[in-house]
Design goal:
Layout: E1 12-17, E2 22-23, H1 24-35, E3 40-44, E4 49-50, H2 53-60, E5 63-64, E6 67-72, E7 79-85, E8 88-94, H3 97-111, H4 123-139, H5 147-171, E9 174-175, H6 185-213
Parallel strand pairs: 2-9
Antiparallel strand pairs: 1-8, 3-4, 3-6, 5-9, 6-7, 7-8
Keywords: Membrane, Transmembrane, Transmembrane helix
């Protein structure tokens, strides 16, 4: 006789990532992490299961908006699940000694693919900032008196909101091709654009603070 295995939601490891373009080589690396540990691999989307990545590409095309890759261990509650969609990437695993290292290796592989600017591409956040600036900035008279700085304080977060929407729409999912074959505008210039806008935001804030508190 042996004790019956039990599992709860509190036994799970979980990690989320912002929308990040993943490519065929990335998924192949993740699958290799599982198969090298003799885990059973399952590839699926919301409506079908697939034999391999070639099967996915044949039936869904070169780019899929959602994909799930799961790895099964030796017990019913022993599994790793990776879900990729337009809203981001979610990685979960049961706290099984045989799976924890694989989970961390998969997590590290995805983290290396997340671009720096992806962390700032949050449409809801920027829309909230625009709302706060428009409402509270006017109500409490904290916007800069300089017309250019005042307009810039509103335009910059509005622009970031629009770019975030574009990023989320264009960067989620999986490309079943090599990276150089589908290199996007964000891959080339995304980080430079975000750095430029960040500089504009800092400049607007410095101008607002100096005018408000230093009378300049």
């Amino acid at each position: 006789m042996k004790p019956k295995e039990k599992s709860t939601l509190f036994d799970n490891l979980s990690c989320s990532f912002p929308p990040t373009p993943l490519y065929r080589t990335d998924i192949e690396q993740i699958i290799q992490i599982g198969t090298s540990r003799e885990l059973k691999v399952n590839i699926s989307d919301s409506t079908a299961e697939f034999d391999d990545l070639d099967d996915v590409q044949e039936n869904r095309g070169n780019r899929v908006k959602e994909l799930a890759v799961s790895f099964s261990g030796k017990t019913a509650f022993s599994s790793i699940s990776l879900k990729i969609g337009s809203g981001g990437i979610t990685l979960r695993s049961s706290k099984d000694d045989a799976l924890v290292l694989a989970w961390h290796d998969i997590k590290s592989a995805i983290e290396r693919r997340v671009p720096f600017h992806a962390r700032f591409m949050k449409p809801t956040l920027w829309l909230a900032i625009v709302f706060c600036i428009a409402v509270f900035g006017t109500k409490f008279n904290i916007l800069p008196s300089n017309e250019f700085a005042r307009i810039g304080t509103l335009i910059v977060p509005t622009w970031l909101w629009a770019m975030s929407l574009y990023y989320v729409k264009s960067s989620g999912g999986v490309y079943l091709q090599k990276e150089h074959e589908v290199l996007s505008l964000w891959d080339r210039y995304g980080e430079k654009i975000v750095n430029l806008i960040a500089g504009a935001i800092i400049g607007a804030i410095v101008t607002a603070v100096s005018q408000k508190f230093l009378g300049k």
